[in-house]
């Protein structure tokens, strides 16, 4: 008996199990998103003044590439409406991950988040992607992550100091 059902009933039993799995998976994703939002609020409290705005540059742990982008975007939202830049880095599966998020006012001035990550991405042995106010990067040299974050922070400091 496959799936505890007769062979003729197996497709229906499998469908029910897959539906139950999808419900559980959606609930886990909802819980994880809530956890990341709470973490973003905490990280927003670590912002420092930089030029005309706020800046957060932080290495974080326990996140995937998608979660790192979400964490950066949620942290930016938690900062409010002042000029702000959020840059996060993480190591995941032996790779360096980077994400940058810019406030709307900076983006409307023509600034692209990817610009903040270009040199940092090279430092970790990779490239950056993303257009607009949110970008990500990755590379195969996680041992360079701290230096890459420092480099991105200097670029963000310059950006926030510009008129």
What does this structure look like?
- Helices cover 51% and strands 23% of the residues.
- The protein is of the alpha+beta class and 163 residues long.
- A six-stranded mixed sheet has the order 1-2-3-4-6-5.
- Strand 2, helix 2 (65-79) and strand 3 form a beta-alpha-beta unit.
- The model has no long low-confidence stretch (mean pLDDT 91).
Keywords:
163 residues; alpha+beta
In short:
The protein has 163 residues and is an alpha+beta fold. 51% of the residues lie in helices and 23% in strands.
Question: Secondary-structure blueprint of this entry?
Answer:
Elements: H1 10-44, E1 48-50, E2 53-59, H2 65-79, E3 84-92, E4 95-102, H3 104-108, H4 113-123, E5 126-129, E6 134-139, H5 145-161
Parallel strand pairs: 2-3
Antiparallel strand pairs: 1-2, 3-4, 4-6, 5-6
Catalogue the unreliable spans: none
**Terminal-residue CA separation:** 72 Å
Helical fraction: 40-55%
Spatial shape: elongated
Cα Rg: 20 Å
Strand order in space, largest sheet:
1-2-3-4-6-5
| Average pLDDT score | 91
For the largest beta-sheet, the strand count, sense and barrel status come to: 6 strands, mixed
> Count of DSSP helices?
5
Number of strands: 6
Q: How much strand content do the residues show?
A: 15-25%
Order of helices and strands: HEEHEEHHEEH
Which structural class do the helices and strands define?
Answer: alpha+beta
């Amino acid at each position: 008996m496959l799936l505890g059902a007769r062979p003729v009933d197996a497709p229906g039993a499998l469908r029910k199990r897959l539906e139950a799995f999808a419900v559980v998976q959606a609930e886990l994703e909802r819980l994880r998103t809530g956890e990341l939002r709470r973490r973003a609020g905490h990280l927003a409290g670590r912002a420092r003044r930089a030029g005309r705005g706020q800046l957060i540059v932080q290495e974080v742990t326990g996140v995937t590439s998608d979660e790192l982008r979400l964490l950066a975007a949620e942290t930016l939202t938690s900062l409010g409406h002042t000029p702000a830049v959020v840059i996060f880095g993480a190591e995941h599966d032996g790779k360096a991950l980077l994400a940058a998020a810019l406030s709307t006012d900076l983006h409307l001035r023509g600034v692209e988040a990817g610009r903040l990550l270009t040199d940092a991405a090279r430092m970790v042995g990779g490239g950056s992607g993303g257009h607009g106010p949110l970008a990500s990067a990755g590379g195969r040299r996680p041992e360079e992550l701290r230096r890459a974050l420092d480099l991105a922070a200097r670029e963000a400091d310059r950006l926030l100091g510009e008129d």
